């Protein structure tokens, strides 16, 4: 992956010249790892990044994004008052203004919401013989994440801003979190042949300290109708049994907002995020 870092006395950023497909552009670059002392400093660096990306043949620039959506991306557009949670994107309050002044506009919006586990999981889904749901057995984390990788690539391939990454790069991202994992928060749905048709990845919110009371529903995907409902139901049951009192639905696309509001009793959207883009 070809990158270049721009630094000044009042900021820095990194450009990835081989970003994901976006809006029909032939070549997209991304900009991430942004650290700006002020909105003005950020604007100047972003304008320099746009000039450099264009000189390398890019026709669009998006960010903040560290090369692809597997890595850190998005800025905080509405911070709210809740403390940051584990693995949440971070940005300065002036970052959005810097991007906008440099000619960027919002191209995708996201949110995080929380709900009390006392009001979940709701009615139990209908029994099914099509698949079974099981928790991770706690062994062979590379095998675990290889299965997650394979289903993720298939499930997310048609998502906006998708870009394929190699298994080795995927494992390198997730191995550091293995000591933080709890088996009952990592769930699989398998069909009658044993093939994986869905997964859910949850993790305690250790940003609260060593004994957190909130749990993060980080990622889930399924290729079988009904698997997502069963996975989330079992996740809530297991999280309550482990003593958590709040669930955080992390970094969901705005298109899912109505589903969250109707499906979660007492859900509270506490943070919003944006991905910015511009033509070159």
Structure overview:
The model has no long low-confidence stretch (mean pLDDT 92). The two termini are 21 Å apart. Helix 1 crosses helix 2 and helix 3 packs across helix 4 (167-174). This protein folds into two domains: 3-109 and 275-279, 3-Layer(aba) Sandwich (Aminopeptidase); 116-272, 3-Layer(aba) Sandwich (Aminopeptidase). The chain is an alpha+beta fold. Strand 1 and strand 2 (11-16) form a beta hairpin. The chain has six helices and twelve strands. It comes from Sulfitobacter undariae. This is N-acetyltransferase domain-containing protein.
Could you provide a short overview of the structure?
By secondary structure, this protein is of the alpha+beta class.
Question: How is the secondary structure organized here?
Answer:
Elements: E1 3-8, E2 11-16, E3 28-36, H1 39-55, E4 60-63, E5 75-78, H2 95-101, E6 105-116, E7 131-135, H3 141-156, H4 167-174, E8 186-191, E9 196-204, E10 214-222, H5 227-241, E11 246-253, H6 257-263, E12 268-279
Parallel strand pairs: 3-4, 10-11
Antiparallel strand pairs: 1-2, 2-3, 4-12, 5-12, 6-11, 6-12, 7-8, 8-9, 9-10
Helix pairs in contact: 1-2, 3-4
Protein name: N-acetyltransferase domain-containing protein
